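Handout, tutorial session.
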Amino acid sequence: MWKFVVDESMPRSTARELRRLGYWAEDVRDVRLKGSDDDTVFSYAQAQQATLVTADRDFEDIRRFPLGTHHGIMVVRVPDILPTWVVNAELLKALKQLHGQPLKGVLVIVELGRIRVRRQG
């Protein structure tokens, strides 16, 4: 079963939606990491052996966060002007498409209506 740490760049409701579907999920705001830098949030996700879910495009940098070296990163690129439920729906749709696949070491880019998956090698 996948585990997720949700960055504060995502809607407050994202972790709740993931838990509602039976996933283990924590929001960084609930573990006193609000306002923390990227390295701190990333390290926390790794310590939890969880995939980081974020809208922060800095996490797309595979030189800084090399493929195959982490527990997974999902960057959700849905325009800020869209309602929260759309952001969550796109994420959940992506997870449904990825069902059964390991997220460890993978970078997943979630966009409106599509996902891109980058794996090592």
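The second record follows below. Compare its token runs with those of the first.
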Amino acid sequence: MWVLVVAIVLLGLKFAAIGPFATLSWWWIAIPLAVVFVWWEIIDPMFAISQKRAMREMGERKKERNDKARKALGMRSRK
């Protein structure tokens, strides 16, 4: 998740006191971390977004595996 990457980069720059990030308010670092927390703890479980994506990917892998097995057996693949 790109917001987590932004939060980690901001956190690293703040701790290293690099350039203008040394004087940056901690709120600018806390906001992306709070967004990530809300996403993972509330939004994602509520709508099961990650689980749906994982199930779809697993279904695609299963179809590819079945098609490969059918081709190896000389059978036509399902469309």
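Points raised in discussion: The CA atoms of residues 64 and 77 lie 10 Å apart.
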